[in-house]
Amino acid sequence: MIGGAMKETIKVLVTGGAGFLGSNLCQRLLEQGKQVTCLDNFYTGKKENLSALLRYPTFKVIQHDVCQAINLDVDAIYHLACPASPPHYQRDPIQTTKTNILGALNMLELAKNLQVPILLTSTSEVYGDPHVHPQKEEYWGNVNCIGPRACYDEGKRCAETLFMDYHRMHQVDIRIARIFNTYGPKMCKDDGRVVSNFIVQALQNKPLTIYGSGEQSRSFCYVDDQISGLISLMEKPNLHTPVNIGNPIEKSMNEIAQLVLTLTPSNSRLVYHPLPVDDPKQRCPDISKAKAQLGWEPKVDLTTGLQRTISYFSALLERTESVVAQ
Ligand code: NAD
Ligand code: UDP
After folding, report:
1. How many CA atoms lie within 13 A of 40 on its CB side?
2. Which residues line ligand 2 (CB under 6 A)?
3. What pLDDT score does 326 carry?
4. What is the atom index within ligand 2 of the atom nearest the CA of 85?
5. N vs C: which end of the chain shows fewer Cβ within 10 Å?
6. pLDDT score recorded for residue 254
7. Which residues line ligand 1 (CB under 6 A)?
8. pLDDT, tens digit, for every residue of 64-121?
């Protein structure tokens, strides 16, 4: 399976396809003419994310938990299923660990049996609270294995281990994307991650909730760039080691809050809350591997990406308010 000509990919499985990234990925693949099967248990995913996609006769939705094995006939698998926002993945941490590990095992078995490529959406969380900055793929990370984030961080680290071992033992044609904070349309308004929280709070003239001093940093990638990166990685033959996919422009949470206030017609103020346990102090991808191996780099600047996301949430909130008023 490895090294040979890749079978033409027509039928694509996207696990977690009803979520933020999954629904954007399904949309792009459908636009490219693929037949797309979205597999999701709707733990954090939303049926509304799929409503526009159901117009495509080539789109199919299967409600299923990746912790259970499944047999399907597909040519490639994007394995995204897993809650990604800290409040959601910490809601039932045992379920999050199961989703990461049993989900990876079941999807790897499927890829092995079908002899098709499979991409894991791993995360910058594998670097934990990093001592190396910016983070390169060679860095092994600094993760607290008994903290409240461990169900996600260690779950993803173990999923990466399983991917590498299926590659070494069974020659499965794997890809591992280490995704850094990504934002954009189709996030839910109660997602809990910082960009959606700040925008929804600003649009509702509620205080913007900054955790800790607000001086901790993240690097935010617009969703369209992220999806292009994931597809480029899947289509790159013989790249079986992890690749960082993210935007290396680093910002503090105070800077993000100020920018959101500048871009919205808001009179919100800032309020400071305690920093969650094990919240990483800094995060920035070194994307030289993605640039060299995939010819990929992000194109959408933060202001443009935030403006598009603000327009999406304005329309979403207007729709929700008009439904409540009826
Ligand atoms: P999301 O929570 O919006 O989507 C996750 C999807 O997975 C949801 O539709 C959910 O219902 C589904 N799901 C969860 N558990 C499942 C299970 N057991 N069986 C079937 N479906 C299940 O999150 P997202 O931001 O779209 O993230 C998608 C993937 O990308 C995740 O694997 C996440 O770890 C990874 N990732 C995302 C980011 C980011 O910034 N968005 C950063 C790093 C990694
Ligand atoms: N954060 C914040 N206010 C919020 C939500 C998050 O200040 O309303 C902070 C959070 O503590 C973290 C950063 O924003 O330092 C990014 O948080 P997010 O949950 O978006 O992603 P992650 O921590 O997984 O990188």
Report:
1. 25
2. 85-86, 181, 193-194, 197, 209-211, 216, 218, 253, 276, 279
3. 59
4. 19
5. C
6. 98
7. 15-16, 18-22, 40-45, 65-67, 80-84, 88, 99, 103, 121, 123, 179, 181-182
8. 999 999 999 999 999 999 999 999 999 999 999 999 999 999 999 999 999 999 999 9
Q: Cα angle at 220 between 218 and 221, to 5 degrees? A: 150
Q: Which atom of ligand 1 is nearest to the CA of 83?
A: 2
CA of 269 to the centre of ligand 1 (A): 31
> Which atom of ligand 1 lies nearest, measured to the CA of 79?
32
Cis preceding-peptide flag for 57 (omega within 30 of 0): no
Measured CA to CA, the distance from residue 78 to residue 141 in angstroms comes to 25
Beta bridge partners of 60: 37
pLDDT score for 320: 84
Query: What residues form DSSP beta bridges with 178?
Result: 122, 244
Q: With H, G, I as helix, E, B as strand and everything else as coil, classify residue 262.
A: helix
β-pairing, 76-79 with 59-63? unpaired
Mean pLDDT per 10-residue segment, the chain (326 residues): 56 98 98 98 97 97 98 98 98 98 98 98 98 98 98 98 98 98 97 98 98 98 98 98 98 98 97 98 98 98 98 95 68
Which residues are CB-neighbours of 149 under 8 A, at least 6 positions away?
86, 90, 125, 143, 277, 278
pLDDT of residue 7: 55
Nearest to 111 by CA among 15, 228, 223, 218: 15
Please give the model's pTM, rounded to 2 decimal places.
Answer: 0.97
Domains of the chain in sequence order: 11-182+222-248+280-300 (3.40.50.720)
Torsion of CA 214, 218, 220, 221, to 10 degrees: -170
The per-residue pLDDT for 1 is 45
